[in-house]
Amino acid sequence: MKEILVNYMKQFADLSEADLISLAENVPVGSFKKGTVLLHQGEVPDKCFFILKGCIRQYAIDVSGKETTFNFFTEEQSVTIFNQHSKDKLSNYSLSCLEDCVLVVGDLALEQDAYDQYPVLEMMTRKMMEADMGRIQDEFSSFVASTPEERFKALLEKRAELINRVPQYQLASYLGITPESLSRIKKRFDITHLK
Amino acid sequence: MKEILVNYMKQFADLSEADLISLAENVPVGSFKKGTVLLHQGEVPDKCFFILKGCIRQYAIDVSGKETTFNFFTEEQSVTIFNQHSKDKLSNYSLSCLEDCVLVVGDLALEQDAYDQYPVLEMMTRKMMEADMGRIQDEFSSFVASTPEERFKALLEKRAELINRVPQYQLASYLGITPESLSRIKKRFDITHLK
Question: Min CA distance, B181 vs chain A (Å)?
Fold first, then answer.
């Protein structure tokens, strides 16, 4: 399964296959049961994750009790709540496993030590973050510029597997619509063949 | 004016005041007239910016000709379109100066050389990107979870100066509403005293 990690790292660092495998061998991997909460809203995040298998949901509950789902992360995505540089350092989000997950688990407190030991890691992390920044810039912009129907169409084109992989009320929240609107849109797109 | 840059860098690197000043002395700074387009949608970005003075707008025009404003950047913000790792590397956005601007201008092609020459820069850039990622995660989430009225309230609390600094139709677009809705919301908040 660490092949996934090796292939991912290969995109960002000019290292030999042997070096990449050796790096991958040294990262801690953990298995987490469906339903595990990896980070609670209001806690200080101390870990970052890379998904080898499974699906993680990022969500928050506001003061009125309303829950909003902000993202779903799946295989070959990294998951970090970046608030080390905010004032209180408390996470505005929870992260939980929507499926049984196999994850690379990074310890944020040891991050600088790892960079000092393997300088190539710092370059790789910077490049991975650049790619993540590009993705989040585009996702944000698409969300602002699109109607709910267009958002659903984009999801169908880019991440169709999500549609049957996550609870529909969470998917609706992620698209910024009610579950009823999502049902209507799905009917219009006639996506029953996906099931 | 480079004091702004020194103070910004200070947050991310444990360097002496002398080293920071020396770093700041070596970065290229340029002046750009209001209306200058720094990057055209569809071009490959080759520069990144840090604002010492002025305001930059990030926007795009879709296939139907509709223009959407995605962000306004002001003093002490860095502005980069991160698509070096995308397939075609073409920018989905334009960047233009809404005011006369004084900007630190980084050359993306020379970035790796600069890191090789000053390794502390790579660490600093990574930390600056972490802070930017945290900010964009929160802005995106706020946008998804908020009504237009709540978005305006947040803007009033966090970046009130923008309200009188940018054209109102662009501000409305940024908030995901029509200019007419923005006028109504402003009346409800009775913000005429800001003028």
Answer: 16
Is B76 strand, coil or helix? coil
From first CA to last CA, the distance across chain B in angstroms is: 27
How many angstroms separate the CA atoms of A110 and A112, rounded? Answer: 6
Tokens (6 digits) for B29: 């700074």
| Residue of chain B with shortest Cα separation from A140 | B140
Short-list B169, B141, B174, B132, CA closest to A60: B141
Question: Hey, are the CB atoms on B145 and A62 less than 8 Å from each other?
Answer: yes
Instruction: Please count the other Cβ atoms lying within 10 Å of the Cβ belonging to residue B31.
Output: 13
Whether the CB of B86 is below 8 Å from some CB of chain A: the reply is: yes
Which residue ranges form the domains of chain B, and what is each CATH number?
2-117 (2.60.120.10)
**Contact present, A135 and A80 (Cβ < 8 Å):** no
β partners of residue B37: B96
Residue in chain B lying closest to A120 (CA): B122
Q: What tokens were used for A81? A: 């709540």
Smallest CA-to-CA distance from A23 within A121, A151, A163 is with: A121
CB burial readout A37-76, b (16+ within 10 A) else e = ebbebeeebebbbbbbebbbbbbbeeeeeeebbbbbbbbe
CB proximity B122 to A under 8 Å: yes
- Here the ipTM equals 0.86
Q: Each residue's pLDDT tens digit in chain A (195 positions)?
A: 778 888 888 888 888 889 888 888 888 899 999 999 999 999 999 999 999 999 999 999 998 999 999 999 999 899 999 887 777 889 999 999 999 999 999 998 888 888 888 888 888 888 888 989 999 999 999 888 888 899 999 999 989 999 999 999 999 999 989 999 999 999 988 765 454
Predicted TM-score (pTM) of this structure: 0.86
